[in-house]
Design goal:
This protein is an alpha/beta fold. It is built from seven helices and ten strands. Helix 3 (104-114) packs across helix 4 and helix 3 packs parallel to helix 5 (148-160). The longest helix has 18 residues, at 178-195. It binds adenosine-5'-triphosphate.
């Protein structure tokens, strides 16, 4: 098996054992192969964010198996989990989540420094990434000085800064207008394809989903045929 993300029988409930228990994930089986880009479509409240957070090692499941790059996350302590997340997973949110007091270049450089990359190499990689999505000319601007589409493109570069194995994205074109969304999604796909990345990308936008390799649907806590 050459799956970069492999999920088997994943379950998660909130308020477990209490009268207000919500069984959000009821046995998720899902895999993303090397270089594959999978669209995750789901009605609101179906558990999409919960699933992405668990796959991105930001939350833990109550049961089931999850492995990234062939390594199971079962039994990892918090420190190991954080280390694995930093090295192997890139995350893109609906809103850019860039650090407001740092420039675009710094936002893409800093995560690399946190992973022990030397400053010159980190900056060179950051510039190359910004260049490849057409925002190199905004490298010294802070997020507030960038357009929404530029902010998202910088956030994509940040997610790829540490050369992750797996990219996870939650509505990566955010609240951009349809035209900008279309354009910016093209930039994301370019980055992903150039890096040969595996990605799971949640979106409500069926036009964007159709541009990915495969679509899966999350409904009532289970993956159903799309
Ligand atoms: N910390 C929490 N405590 C209790 N319930 C929660 C918690 N987080 C999420 N839920 C509930 O779990 C369900 C799934 O939430 P989740 O955020 O994963 O949905 P979603 O599919 O991402 O929704 P949307 O598309 O609207 O963002 C919802 O009914 C939500 O109310």
């Amino acid at each position: 098996m050459n799956n970069v993300l492999q999920i088997n029988g994943l379950v998660k409930a909130y308020n477990a054992g209490k009268p207000n228990e919500i069984a959000v994930l009821r046995g998720i089986d899902l895999s993303v192969a090397k270089g594959e880009v999978v669209a995750l479509v789901a009605p609101s409240g179906a558990g999409k964010t919960t699933l992405l957070q668990i796959a991105g090692l930001l939350d833990v499941a109550d049961g089931g198996d999850l492995s990234i790059g062939g390594d199971s996350v079962q039994g990892l302590n918090d420190a190991k989990r954080t280390q694995m997340r930093r090295r192997e997973v890139g995350f893109i949110y609906q809103f850019h989540h860039l650090l407001p007091e740092f420039t675009a270049l710094e936002n893409v450089t800093l995560p690399q420094l946190a992973n022990g990359i030397a400053t010159a190499a980190a900056e060179a990689r950051a510039r190359a990434l910004l260049d490849s999505v057409g925002v190199a000319h905004r490298a010294s601007h802070r997020p507030a000085e960038l357009s929404g589409g530029e902010q998202q493109r910088v956030a994509y570069c940040r997610a790829l800064a540490n050369d992750p194995k797996l990219l996870l994205a939650d509505e990566p074109t955010g609240n951009l207008d349809p035209e900008t969304s279309d354009l910016v999604f093209g930039a994301l796909m370019k980055l992903v394809r150039e890096a040969g990345l595996s990605a799971l990308i949640a979106t409500h936008n069926l036009d964007l989903a159709a541009r990915m390799d495969r679509m899966v649907r999350l409904e009532a806590g289970r993956i159903v045929p799309a």
